[in-house]
Amino acid sequence: FNNGVVRVYDAASKILLHTIQPVNANTISDIEYNDADNDGTKEIIVSDGNKFYFINSLTYVIQNQLSFSTYDFTVGNVDNTPDNEIVTSAGKVLKYNGVSLTTLWTFQNPFNTGLGLVELSDTDNDGKKEIFKSDNSGIFVYDADLQSTKYSIPTSVGIDALLLKDVNNDN
């Protein structure tokens, strides 16, 4: 990811379908594939740490690029609306309408540097995903609907990878 190029391959044939260079000689920090603008079609969303690039997943054309500084991000529904939000490691819950970004909520622990990782999971089975944010001091869990911290798990080491899955199928 250090040349700013995104390559799209066909999974079955392994054939390169398209090459996109949304970032000019910058490092790509994260890529997501989701319906970020809530229009019913998933986009390829790329961050270089300074901008979001929204790429049409059918035409591979960059639809929009917006300045926003974050290391990691994810997309999903974290509140009472039916829409997806963009959640960033910089501690922001954002709404993207296809044109602009609006900050809906800022969540931060006292040591938030903007680095770290974010994941979403509905761990309390209320139909809304909670925000899991890791950094050098632990994992912090936020409820965007209530705009509050649910709990935290302190650690003595930094978290370099974060994955949330129900491995024992107990919901």
Architecture overview:
It is a single chain. This protein is 0% helix and 43% strand. The protein is mainly beta. The mean pLDDT is 87.
List keywords for this structure.
171 residues; mainly beta; 4-stranded antiparallel sheet; globular
Compact overview of the structure:
With 171 residues, the chain is mainly β. The chain has strands spanning 6-9, 16-20, 30-34, 43-47, 51-56, 62-67, 73-76, 85-88, 92-96, 101-106, 117-121, 130-135, 138-143, 148-154.
| Helix vs. strand class | mainly beta
Mean pLDDT: 87
Percentage of residues assigned to helices: under 10%
Radius of gyration: 16 Å
Terminal Cα separation, in Å? 35 Å
Order of helices and strands: EEEEEEEEEEEEEE
User: So how many helices?
Assistant: 0
Q: Identify the overall geometry.
A: globular
Classify the beta-strand content into a percent band.
Answer: 35-45%
Unreliable residue stretches: none
Q: How is the largest sheet built, in terms of strand order?
A: 3-4-5-6
Largest sheet, if any? 4 strands, antiparallel
